[in-house]
Amino acid sequence: MTEFGFTLKARDGAARLGEITTPRGKIQTPAFMPVGTAATVKAMFPEQVRGTGAEIVLANTYHLMLRPGAERIARLGGLHRFMNWPGPILTDSGGYQVMSLAKLRTISEEGVRFQSHIDGARYDLSPERAIEIQCLLGSDIQMQLDECVAYPASHEEAARAMQLSLRWAERSRTAFARLGKPGQALFGIVQGGTYADLRAQSAEALVAMDFPGYAIGGLAVGEGRAIMLETLAETAPLLPADKPRYLMGVGTPRDLVDAVALGVDMFDCVMPTRSGRHGQAFTWAGKLNLRNACHAEDPGPLDPESKCPAARDYSRAYLHHLVRAGEHLGAMLLTWANVHFYEALMAAMRAAIAEGRFEALAARIRAAYGISGQ
Prior knowledge:
Blueprint: E1 5-12, E2 15-22, E3 25-29, E4 31-34, H1 46-51, E5 57-60, H2 61-66, H3 70-75, H4 79-83, E6 89-92, H5 95-100, E7 105-107, E8 112-115, E9 122-125, H6 127-137, E10 141-143, H7 155-179, E11 185-190, H8 196-209, E12 213-216, H9 225-235, E13 245-247, H10 253-261, E14 266-269, H11 271-277, E15 280-283, E16 286-289, H12 309-312, H13 316-325, H14 328-354, H15 358-368
Parallel strand pairs: 4-14, 5-6, 6-10, 10-11, 11-12, 12-13, 13-14
Antiparallel strand pairs: 1-2, 2-3, 7-8, 8-9, 15-16
């Protein structure tokens, strides 16, 4: 059985080139994980997702707990077989839903009680149950249950949630030691809002627990890019250099290069898939809105630099027509093109780090995705 591991291969400034090893395959970092919340990357076939260069996808504990249920997925052979994805899978613990579904949950020391947004049924999610669900799913990288607080939060509120998350981290670790299988890994999640002292306390305590990887959670929740990057710059150096660093829920192409420049290795975000379903495309020249009339008679491809068939073989005029007509194919093609762009961007960053020219690539992306274009 292949053990979980991380190898740091090169640096360019703080930007890192690495490789994560799992029993289901290797993951080259920096890596972007397409979001497959409910065991599907929306509007894409699994074969298409792999064809973009993605080596790992993300699924969500909370949503799969509600539907179709972790026990059912386990009876059907586990999440990989269920969704026809042979590569590694990372599962979020449901901590983000603690924030996003605040009106439907109550928090206690024991865990979180949710009222299902689907049918109103009540579900209890403790650190132990979150690990049990992830082990039933069979995910390769699992996340501790944590409490993610929305921005703005007072120092007192952020401290309370951070300390609770640390206690839940220890309980998650104990449960994983009992339920996890060889080769699987559990990551701790650094919390603390936008407060440097709380982030430092969280990181110190989690590093002492010796997780095989660390996530930075609780960012991109309304604080804005400048504060996010400032918090990230203060937090990333506190994490072990020989273990992967995962920035949860981020972000735009510019966010990705800025975070890699600060030493982050792993990312996930719904942006490429959600934007594709809403008529927006990410290209090497910047972000496009295919609803705009300027594309109505443009016979050129979506992105002449892309190797993705969706971006190369269909005209902007046709994509404009599909989006304006509400045709499903429009969402499918733009999602495919967007995920392909994100994976191509990560591959370009890996090559640039290896060759010592990361800053030049980052400057190009920052220029294409200025503040207005994100």
